[in-house]
Amino acid sequence: MPVVSQNRSVHRPKPFIKTARLCVTQYLFATAAITLLVYTLAFPSPATAIIALVCMVLFFAFWLLSNISSRSATCPLCRGKCLASSKASKHKKAYRLKPLSYAQTTALSIVFTNKWRCMHCGSVYDLKKKPGQRPQY
Ligand SMILES: [Zn+2]
Question: Mind telling me which residue stretches traverse the membrane in this protein (predicted)?
Answer without folding.
Answer: 20-41, 47-65
